[in-house]
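Quick one, T. Sequence first:
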Amino acid sequence: MTKSKEFYQEKLAALYDRAWNDESFSARLDTDAKAAVEEYVGEMPANVDVKVVRDTGNVKYLHIPNPPVEREIPDADLMQARGGTFWNCATVIGDPQLTVIGTSVVPQPTVPNGDF
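Structure tokens:
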């Protein structure tokens, strides 16, 4: 089962809170980050490593995710599009004129028999 974005947001918020308020957990993030994070999000693949970087008052870090994977859209997905039913969505953090984090194309939900 794939975990939702909301699941990870909730778990990350709880992890931040514990890191800020529990010195022993915070120290464990520095020594065994993967095990500490797995307590919140579950087991991660063996080939995944976790590194902790802490912002300070004067230093901020920007996380750059992997680039999107370009792939050909399968014919079945194109058939469901029914001509122009794709929405273009952008994730924006901070000032929308300065920071666009990423974009994706999301299919519009299919409406049975064209009824609304």
